[in-house]
Amino acid sequence: MSKFSPNYVFRIVFVLLLMSTLPILAIEVSLVSPAMAQNQSITSISPSSLFNSNDSENTTSDNTALKIPSQNGFNSSVLATNFSEPLNILYGPDGLLWVTERVGKTITIVDPINGSKVNSIPIPEVHQSGGQDGLLGMAFDPNFNNNHHIYVAYTYDNDSSDQLERLTKITRFTYDPASGTIDKPLDLIKGLQGSIDHNSGRMVFGNDGKLYYTIGDQGKNQLSLYCLNIEAQSLPTAEEVADQNWTAYQGKVLRINPDGSIPDDNPEINGVQSHIFTYGHRNPQGLVVGPNGDLFVAEHGPNSDDEVNHLIAGGNYGWPYVAGYKDDQAYQYINWSSAGNECPKIKYEPLNPPIDKVTITNESAFNAANFISPVATFYTVPADYNFSEHNCGQLAYICNPTVAPSSLDLYTSDYIPGWNGTLLMTTLKAGKIFQLSLDKNGTSLSKEPVELFHSENRYRDLAFSPDGSTLYVITDSSGPAQAIGGGATTNLWNPGSILVFKYEDKTK
Length: 508
Fold this sequence. Notes:
single chain; mainly beta; 4-stranded antiparallel beta sheet; globular
């Protein structure tokens, strides 16, 4: 019998071990390779299976090789990188991509073919020093090709001293295509509240020629701002409107004439007409004109109940008394500011509030006649849901039953079969894009949401090519997301980038 040397035996064992890892490697490649894109699930998944697990704590931050999200039927690629917290992307009338960079304080113009950054436009007066302030949303004037007007929202410092007074304004600029610069600034509205949190800042022109703009609740009643009272239900007096005191505009969707004035047909709410179109919003970061010309928003919930809402003039969407449906499930309104001067002495523990010191209200106690229920929630969970049972470690909120919707867009082409008339909703926590099909009235979904392009990215916004063949998606530069294997991660696949998802039409 022949004998093998120890070195020879070692080499055989090593080869066998290496071969045993190949299927795992192949699986990982197939999940991320654009050329071998895999189907993503279109079935509804229960929140408990998405966010809770019996696995041990799983938070990752190690660097790994570049991965690109994939989806059956699409080619995926990275178009451009190194953006400074991009917030808004638009496919411009000039055939270029326009990207607002919240921290960079610039609008960067990108060639959608080769990804080159052909121009960078600094926006004057932008102040950025907090978690969610800086350069926000933008919109093109419907008559841009003739007047070259763009509308831009941003936070600014209204105090010339060393003290910071963070406010928000919307300014119209005139773009010069020859020089690639902006001039002739006109402030449509200024003195809006600004914050380190929940500024929202989405804007879009409606089919009626009016400019719609979302303002969040400024992050009050939570985290470092937990002792500040939420103003989402506050409405301005006639005197405040006359004095251009817009303090009550927090937690609202505004409807504005292109010159900044109040439209004559805006709703009269509590006897006062203002810029307010709807109210009772938390953090509406998605805003879109729907298939029938109506407006829809997607907004962040607290620990549950992210919402998609159909906007009705004068409608009240319930926040902070209601999150999601008025069903007395997992959400109760814990009003920390009700503790008054004692509030700063109370430890902020949202899962263990001091019931003897703060007011706690059930959703069913809210009886506004103009309350509008959401089209859909992500996700409503029962009253006994255990928010403390998760595997996200210190990033516990990443495991909450929410997806963090960050934008909402309408697909209007026949290029991708079955997509015309559906909404695409990007998400931050979930690392997915949800396709939403509305019923004919726009008051509910006609079928379960379809989950697309699953990744470990924070998808911030998207734009479509004019022919509908291509999605251009911007991603956050940093922040946590749900890890595909469970738990949370801060190691984003494609931070601060524009991703391209191009549909492969096999018939052409």
